Amino acid sequence: xxxxxxxxxxxxxxxxxxxxxxxxxxxxxxxxxxxxxxxxxxxxxxxxxxxxxxxxxxxxxxxxxxxxxxxxxxxxxxxxxxxxxxxxxxxxxxxxxxxxxxxxxxxxxxxxxxxxxxxxxxxxxxxxxxxxxxxxxxxxxxxxxxxxxxxxxxxxxxxxxxxxxxxxxxxxxxxxxxxxxxxxxxxxxxxxxxxxxxxxxxxxxxxxxxxxxxxxxxxxxxxxxxxxxxxxxxxxxxxxxxxxxxxxxxxxxxxxxxxxxxxxxxxxxxxxxxxxxxxxxxxxxxxxxxxxxxxxxxxxxxxxxxxxxxxxxxxxxxxxxxxxxxxxxxxxxxxxxxxxxxxxxxxxxxxxxxxxxxxxxxxxxxxxxxxxxxxxxxxxxxxxxxxxxxxxxxxxxxxxxxxxxxxxxxxxxxxxxxxxxxxxxxxxxxxxxxxxxxxxxxxxxxxxxxxxxxxxxxxxxxxxxxxxxxxxxxxxxxxxxxxxxxxxxxxxxxxxxxxxxxxxxxxxxxxxxxxxxxxxxxxxxxxxxxxxxxxxxxxxxxxxxxxxxxxxxxxxxxxxxxxxxxxxxxxxxxxxxxxxxxxxxxxxxxxxxxxxxxxxxxxxxxxxxxxxxxxxxxxxxxxxxxxxxxxxxxxxxxxxxxxxxxxxxxxxxxxxxxxxxxxxxxxxxxxxxxxxxxxxxxxxxxxxxxxxxxxxxxxxxxxxxxxxxxxxxxxxxxxxxxxxxxxxxxxxxxxxxxxxxxxxxxxxxxxxxxxxxxxxxxxxxxxxxxxxxxxxxxxxxxxxxxxxxxxxxxxxxxxxxxxxxxxxxxxxxxxxxxxxxxxxxxxxxxxxxxxxxxxxxxxxxxxxxxxxxxxxxxxxxxxxxxxxxxxxxxxxxxxxxxxxxx
Length: 886
Prior knowledge:
By secondary structure, the protein is of the alpha/beta class. Helices cover 49% and strands 15% of the residues.
C-alpha cells in the first residue's frame, strides 16, 4: 500500500513562509543624505526621464501588490483530491463497484464529494484578503519626469521616481523623504497608532530603530495628514512593506494542527491495511484454496478497516459546533478553525477594544501636585466647549462631564478668539471674555510643549515661579501620571487686557500670545479596561489558555492596562527588542513574556511564528489592517464584526461582541467538538486494530471464510450508523478543562491496549462456535454449509454487539452510564443497532445475507461475553488513565 500511495504525493509543496519586512534598500537610504540617496537609486532631483522610467518598469514590473491571477478550477480540484483518505476511498469505491457492492461504493463517493467540496470552497476564497489590500492604493501620483511634474498612474511608478506629496495624498510606494515642510503622515493602517507622526528630510532615529519608526521614510498605504514633501521612491509593488503584508495574507495557509492530525491518523490506518489486507488475502487463498473468494474477502476487510465515515463525522461535528457557537455570538467562517480554537493554548490579542473599552475617558483632573481640583476640570471644559476645530476623543471625554457646565460658568463667558491646534506647537488655546471685562487665554496641550511657555504655576492659591528646581519637581509629577499609563494634557491660563479688532477679519490673538502662562494643572485620560476583562482572562487561564498582549501602544499605557486586568508585566518586550532578536532568541523570550509593546505588523507575525515553533497552538485577536498578517499566520485568526474588511477576510472566526468572555465560550465549544471527533477516531481505530487480529486468527484456524464479504460490509454499515450519533453526544467537563490536540502517541497507545480486548472475546466466540456448537463439522456438504452459516452468524452478532457496546466505554474517561451519561440520541441509536443485530439472523434479510438461527445457549454466552468485555475494557482504560498514557 505504501508503494501505491507514496507520502510524497500528498506532501504539500514546500514554500518559504512569506514574512512582512521592510526592503533593505529602504533602511539603507534612510541613513544617507539626499545627494547620496539619488546616487544610490541612480536618480536625480528633477526625476527620471520617460525613457528611463519605461526601461525600469520593464525590469521591475508594475507597482501593484499582487498580480491578478486566479487559480483555475482544475488546479483547485487537484489540491482537494490529493489527500490520502480521498484517494483510498476512491480506490475502494472503484473496487466495490467492480465487485458489485454498490452500497459501499455509494457511501464512499458521498464521503469523497463532502471532503472535496469543502476543500474547494475554502481554496476558492484564499486570495480575497490580498484583494482588499490592493483596494487601498490610489490611482495616480505626481511625479517629476524630466523635471516636469506629471500625473502618473501609481502602477507605473518605479524605483528612483521623484514624487511630490501634499495633504490628503496617499504615499504611492515606500519612499525616502528628501524635502519636507511640516510633514505629518498618518500610518495607523500599518502601526495602529492613533495620531499622525512627523516626517523629516533628515533621519532622526538611531540605527537600531525598528524600520516603521524611521522618521525619513514613508510607506505605501499611509497618507499625508498635513504639510508637503518631495520624496524618492525606494521600493514598489511586492517589495514594499504593504506588498509583504499582501503576500503574507494571500499565501496559501499552512496545514493546521487539525489537518495534520487527520492526515497522521489516515496514514496509521493505511499502515494497518498495508500489513493486514495482503496477509488476509494470502492466508485465505492458501488455506481455503479459492483465490477469487479470498480476494473479495480481502477487499471487504479493506473496506471494513477504512474510516469512510470520518469526513462525515468531522463535518457534522464541526457544523454542529458552528451552530452552537453562533448562538453564543461567535460566527465561524472556516469550520476547521473550531478544533484549532479548542486546541489553542496561547491567545495573542491587541489591547484597544479587547482588553479596554475602546473609549477614552477623563480619569484625573488635578493641580500640579496631582491633587484633585475641580477648577482645573472647569478650565479644560471651557477650552473644549469653545473650540471650533475638530473635537478629538480627548475633547469629547472632557465634554462628557456635563455637570461641569454650570461650575465653569459657561453662560457668562463670551468667546473672543481661538488659536488653533497644530502639530508643531501641540497646543490649542481659546480666548474668552469674563464678566469682569478681562480676557483670559486658556491653553491645553502636551506638558513638554506647554511648560516652556509658562512663567509661573499655581498651587494652593499661590503663584510660584517656574525656576529650575520647580520645573524638575513639576516634571516628575506629570511623568508619574504618564508612568501610570495616562495620556496627560497640561492646562495653563493667562489674564490679559482686551485687544480690539481693527477690522472684521482681524485676528487679535495669535501664537505669540501663548507666553508667560500660569500652569494650573493636568487632565489625564485613559482607555479603561472592560469590567469583564479580568474575569475573562481568569476563565481562559483556568481553561489552560495563556493571554499575551501585542500592541502598538507605548509600554507605559499597556503596562497599566495589563496590571489592572491581572496580566503579569514583569517582562515587557518592545518592538526594538524584537527587531534585534534572532528567531530562536525570540521564541525563548516570547514564551516567558506576556506584554509586547510598540510592535509592528511584522513583529506580531514573527512573535506568533516563534511561539508556533515551540509547539504552541496560537490564536490571534485583532481588528485592524495592521493585524492582517498576524491573523493569517495564527492557527486561528479571530476578529470582530466591526473590524476593517481586510481583518475580517484574514480571520477564521468573527465575534459579534468584542469580548474575551464570548471567546472563552467559543474555546469550550471548540473543545467539545474535538472531544467528539476523537471519540470517533478512538472507536474506529481501536475496533479496526482488534479486528485485524481477529480476522488473521480466524483466517488461519477456521476452515472456511469466517465471514462473507457481504456480512463484513453489513456489519461495517450498522457499526457506522451507530457512530453517526457521536456528534450529538455529551462531553464530560474534564475533557474541556485544558487544550487538547492530536497526539498520535496517545492514540497509538489507546489502540494497542484497547483494540486487542475485542480480539480476546472474538477468539472466545470462535471457541464457543467451533467446540460447543460443533462448527467443525465438515462431514457432509450440508453439514459444512450449516457449520459455516452458524459460525458466521455467531461471530457477526457478537462482533456487532461488542463493538456497539464498547462505544459507551470509549466515549468517556469515567464509568459509563453511572458517572457519565451519553446523549439520548446516542443511547437510542446504540439500542437500535443492538436490536437489529439480534433480530437480523432470523429475518428474511438475514437469510439473504447467509445467516441462520442461533441456538438458545448462544444468548446467555453472549451476555456473559458482553459483560466480561465491558469490565475488561473499562479496567484497561482506567489503568491507562492512571499512568497518564491517554
